[in-house]
Design brief:
The complex is a heterotrimer of chains A (about 250), B (about 400) and C (about 300).
Chain A: H1 2-13, E1 19-30, E2 33-44, E3 48-53, H2 59-66, E4 72-79, E5 82-83, E6 97-100, H3 112-117, H4 129-135, H5 137-141, H6 152-164, E7 170-174, H7 182-197, E8 201-205, H8 209-212, E9 218-223, E10 226-232, H9 236-247
Parallel strand pairs in A: 3-8, 3-9, 6-7, 7-8
Antiparallel strand pairs in A: 1-2, 1-4, 4-5, 9-10
Chain B: H1 16-20, E1 34-40, H2 51-65, E2 68-69, E3 72-80, H3 85-99, E4 103-106, H4 110-122, E5 127-129, E6 146-148, H5 153-166, E7 171-177, H6 180-195, E8 199-206, H7 214-223, E9 227-231, H8 234-246, E10 255-258, H9 263-269, H10 271-274, E11 278-281, H11 289-302, H12 308-327, H13 332-341, E12 353-354, E13 360-361, E14 364-369, E15 382-388, H14 390-393
Parallel strand pairs in B: 1-3, 1-4, 4-5, 5-6, 7-8, 7-9, 9-10
Antiparallel strand pairs in B: 2-3, 11-14, 12-13, 14-15
Helix pairs in contact in B: 2-12, 3-4, 5-6, 8-9, 12-13
Chain C: E1 3-4, E2 7-8, H1 9-40, H2 47-65, H3 69-90, H4 100-122, E3 138-140, E4 145-147, H5 148-170, H6 172-182, H7 184-189, H8 194-216, H9 226-241, H10 246-266, H11 274-285
Antiparallel strand pairs in C: 1-2, 3-4
Helix pairs in contact in C: 1-5, 1-8, 1-9, 1-10, 2-3, 2-4, 2-8, 2-9, 3-8, 5-6, 5-8, 9-10, 9-11
The chains are: A alpha/beta (about 250), B alpha/beta (about 400), C mainly alpha (about 300).
């Protein structure tokens, strides 16, 4: 609870804190297996960054580590000036974070409307239901359906939509375009642009580089549990071939 | 052979007297000690009618006897048979093999008792049964190695059923526990009812144990019989009576006949639900001055009045110890012969004697549960209506199938 | 007289009614078990003991504190439920990360401890709890004499079932519970205090058992072993209904009560086993249970 207030004061007084998220020397373990080997990166307020890399490079684990959903972590994760390594999992979202898992996590026993209302509000200033239904009119039409009866694209919309309601300012989105038709991917790109305009900070784990490239301010390339390269949007055109080799696409 | 892991062995009453003199008499006692094993349901359905209270009664007898016989200290072991014939038989086998236990007391569930008596016979031990009901224990299952003390199904049927028919309850509906004991009791009751000029018009056999009797009570109500006979025991009887009272069985003109009812059952049920119930008992704590005197001592120890089984455990242990003292040995055969020779007349048994089939016959009593208005205290529960003389109460030897009886 | 399969209509109707009353108990108890299993993934073997504690709390509360039936109906679930929360917080939580078998063993052990302790103090004969005055007597339904108290049990148990259904299916807290049952880790990532939710859920399940215990107190002798025999049947009911659905648990509970009741007329010897026969049948034909979701 008081962590959220701490953020308010930080944001107000510490104007030089443009940093939304800073990850330093992060190691993560699932039982005996060591997954992350010293991850370092930072995200500035209002930025959209991507975590790129092959399967198993540690991108999803990085997001989960930030949410304290893995076994054991060492290093440092600072969100809005708050060190979160020792925080309980359910306190972390209250710093204003919304997380959209790779498997989307739509609840079968809840209908669309209930799914949408499920995540508790973590900060004021979230989007209203009307705004959300405006942004995703399909969801409004299907609001009485069971969550998992939706198409893959609709489920992805729902997974995104429900964290917009909570007032989160930092979104961690894991593989949101995976397996979706091009027209849906296009829609998601539009949504991300709108969110950026609203001042949201976004960390995007993506396989689909063509989707991510035009949206992102910076790209972090991961390999073997580490960030091996940082590429800004400006550097992108010259590094494209190099990236394609690295990502094996 | 599986040993009982959880045998609680407690030795008590190694009185100061016992260390005094290792006398010559002791030479005739195996191991120089008289060892008694108390076997009973210590934790289940039948706990309250014998259980820890029975052990206390036994220990009282040992203490009252002085803690030793002819200088040989008396040692008591106890174990929970958990109403399992296997557990009971194995415990007793171990007691005899490993601990040289001379006499086994207690014994409640008839199935356990029958298994234990076989072990006693094979190993030439001695058992005095106080808790069990089945009359077959001294009929087709009789052995020279055990004695049946307090009561059995024969006088239960004889006493209660006959009295009820004589009072005009000539049509019966039987509610029977669906296992050997229930069937036996049902058979005995049916015989007595028919011999007395009554008729059994119907019945239902319920699983053992059953907690919800509403359905069977409804069937009993539908039968139109004047009497609903309960051929079950313990919690089943308690549940049946409770349910009958809720369904207004008595108010609608029918009457219950409980065939095996213990004091603790009536206490648990309360007089409101049991008033007027006829029952046969081997003893009642308030039946006379001697009984009261002993019971009050017991009450101070346990905070409850004793059941007939608990009183019988004291009585039979006393009788056993006297016989050991008299015979000067704890050899089972000699002691049993000695016990049979001495008549039993104490606070528990009137006109008691041990027959050759092992049955201790004594006066039985027809009792009626008091109404709440008549009762003057928590344990003032029965009124003794009449005495059934010892020689009439039990199955006559002329009908016996026991191998020890010459017919 | 109208006969149904050789049984007079009146008897048939009577047994049907009694079956429903018993079924209401099954429904209440299996509901609590299903709710607990859903979120904690623990087969709560202490459920029977907690039902028994409910009845005992009512009995002792009346005897020593003069708490009447109606107050007990309200207070006892709170107290026993609170006790359940302490059990969860200090015992079950410690082993939550281990195989679920450990939870089963722990709750089974606790049940034995509760029962053993009470047997030591109160014996097994059980004590009577008086039926509240307004509910004494009976209703003449024409085909049977139905004790008022049993009618009340049916109404109260069904009302509680409906209340539970409403809480779980129609409220925000219930949505948390349903979602937590599916994916509790994600719920934490949304900022829901899942450990607290688990404690509350366990407490609620236990409170349901205690409520059933208070309802049962005037019907059956209040004894330390009253829960253990009932629990096995309730487990069978849960297996038949499937763990998945709240409404399923309620309907299965009522249905099994009726089937058991009718067995008592047609073939009483089998009345203790009929539910297990149904269970075997269901397991063969629909392993996930009648209302369960196929895995």
């Amino acid at each position: 609870m008081n962590t959220a207030e701490a953020y308010e004061t930080n944001a107000a007084t510490d104007s030089q804190t443009l940093e939304m998220l800073r990850v330093n020397d992060l190691h993560a373990f699932y039982g005996e297996s060591h997954i992350l080997h010293g991850v370092n990166f930072d995200v500035k307020r209002g930025e959209l960054v991507t975590l790129l890399g092959r399967n198993g490079a540690g991108r999803s684990t990085t997001l989960k580590s930030i949410m304290n959903m893995v076994g054991r972590r060492t290093g440092s994760i600072v969100i809005n000036g708050n060190e979160t390594l020792r925080m309980k999992p359910h306190h972390i979202p209250r710093l204003g974070i919304g997380y959209c898992p790779e498997e989307r996590g739509i609840f079968a026993s809840l209908d669309v409307h209930e799914n949408l209302l499920l995540p508790p509000t973590v900060r004021s200033g979230g989007m209203s239901l009307d705004e959300i239904y405006d942004m995703f009119p399909n969801l409004y039409e299907r609001r009485k359906s069971q969550g998992t009866r939706l198409s893959g694209g609709e489920q992805q919309m729902l997974a995104m939509a429900r964290i917009l309601r909570t007032g989160a300012r930092l979104l961690l989105l894991d593989e949101i375009t995976e397996g979706l038709a091009p027209v849906i991917v296009q829609k998601l790109a539009e949504v991300l642009i709108q969110l950026k305009e609203r001042g949201m900070t976004i960390v995007l784990v993506e396989q689909n580089f063509r989707f991510a490239a035009p949206l992102a301010d910076r790209h972090f390339v991961m390999d073997h549990g580490q960030i091996v390269e940082e590429i800004t949007a400006a550097q992108l055109p010259s590094r494209r071939d190099h990236l394609n080799t690295m990502l094996g696409v | 052979m599986t040993f009982i892991k959880k045998t609680l062995a407690t030795s008590i009453a190694v009185a100061a007297a016992s260390t005094m003199a290792i006398s010559t008499a002791q030479a005739n006692m195996s191991d120089g000690e008289v060892r008694i094993g108390y076997l009973a349901d210590m934790s289940g359905t039948y706990r309250d009618l014998a259980g820890p209270g029975g052990q206390r009664a036994l220990e009282m007898a040992v203490a009252d006897f002085g803690g030793s016989v002819n200088g040989a200290p008396i040692v008591v072991f106890s174990a929970d048979d958990r109403n399992s014939a296997d557990v009971g038989a194995n415990t007793v086998r171990e007691w005899i093999d490993q601990r040289n236990v001379d006499m086994v007391a207690g014994m409640v569930a008839s199935s356990v008792t029958i298994a234990v008596t076989r072990v006693l016979e094979e190993n030439n031990g001695l058992g005095i049964i106080s808790g069990s009901a089945a009359s077959s224990i001294t009929n087709e299952h009789c052995t020279p190695n055990h004695i049946h003390w307090v009561y059995d199904t024969y006088p239960l049927a004889n006493g209660t059923a006959q009295a009820v028919v004589e009072q005009g309850g000539d049509t019966w509906f039987m509610l029977t526990a669906d296992y050997a004991f229930g069937h036996a009791l049902e058979g005995d009751v049916t015989r007595v009812v028919e011999e007395s000029g009554g008729e059994v018009v119907g019945g239902v056999r319920h699983p053992f144990p059953t907690s919800d009797f509403s359905s069977y009570i409804l069937q009993a109500q539908g039968s139109g019989a004047k009497i609903v006979g309960l051929a079950n025991a313990g919690a089943d009887t308690v549940n049946a009576i409770t349910t009958a009272s809720q369904f207004g069985l008595v108010q609608s003109g029918q009457q219950l006949a409980g065939l095996l009812i213990f004091l603790n059952d009536v206490h648990a049920l309360g007089l409101e639900a049991t008033q007027g119930l006829l029952l046969t008992t081997g003893w009642y704590w308030d039946m006379d001055e001697e009984a009261r005197e002993w019971s009050e001592r017991y009450y101070e120890e346990m905070g409850r009045m004793p059941t007939m089984v608990q009183a019988g455990i004291y009585s039979s242990t006393m009788h056993y110890l006297k016989a050991v003292e008299e015979a000067g040995t704890d050899d089972p055969e000699t002691v049993r012969a000695q016990m049979a020779e001495m008549p039993v007349n104490d606070f528990f048994a009137r006109n008691g004697r041990i027959r050759e089939d092992g049955r201790m016959v004594h006066d039985m009593y027809l009792a009626q549960v008091k109404t709440p208005e008549e009762s003057t205290g928590e344990w003032d529960l029965y009124e003794i209506l009449s005495t059934i003389p010892a020689e009439e109460a039990y199955r006559p030897l002329s009908e016996s199938q026991c191998k020890l009886v010459q017919n | 007289m109208t006969m149904i399969f050789g049984v007079p209509l009146a008897v048939f109707m009577g047994q049907l009614t009694l079956g429903l009353v018993n079924g209401a108990f099954y429904a209440l108890l299996s509901l609590g078990l299903a709710v607990i299993f859903g979120l904690l993934k623990i087969v709560n073997f202490a459920h029977g003991a907690q039902y028994m504690l409910g009845a005992f709390a009512a009995l002792l509360g009346f005897r020593y504190l003069g708490i009447n039936y109606w107050l007990a109906l309200f207070l006892v679930p709170l107290v026993v439920g609170g006790f359940g929360m302490l059990m969860e917080r200090f015992l079950l939580r410690r082993i939550a990360h281990l195989d679920h078998l450990y939870g089963l063993l722990l709750t089974f052990g606790l049940a034995l401890i509760f029962e053993g302790t009470l047997v030591n103090f109160f014996g097994v004969s059980g004590a009577r709890y008086a039926t509240p005055e307004v509910l004494q007597g009976g209703l003449n339904l024409g085909f049977m004499f139905l004790p008022t108290y049993r009618a009340w049990v049916l109404v109260a148990a069904l009302a509680m079932c409906l209340f539970t259904w409403f809480m779980i299916e129609r409220t925000r807290l219930g949505a948390y519970l349903r979602a937590g049952t599916e994916n509790s880790q994600l719920m934490q990532a949304f900022g829901v205090n899942v450990p607290l939710l688990i404690t509350l859920t366990y407490g609620f399940g236990v409170a349901l058992a205690a409520f059933a215990g208070v309802l049962a107190a005037p019907l059956y002798p209040v004894s330390p072993t009253m829960g253990s025999s009932l629990l096995i049947v309730v487990f069978a009911v849960v297996v038949i209904g499937g763990m998945g659905s709240i409404l399923g648990a309620i309907l299965t509970g009522l249905g099994m009560g009726v089937i058991e009741g009718l067995t008592k007329v047609y073939y009483p010897e089998a009345s203790n086993t009929v539910i297990f026969l149904v269970m075997i049948l269901v397991l063969m034909l629909r392993p996930a249970g009648l209302f369960g979701k196929e895995a």
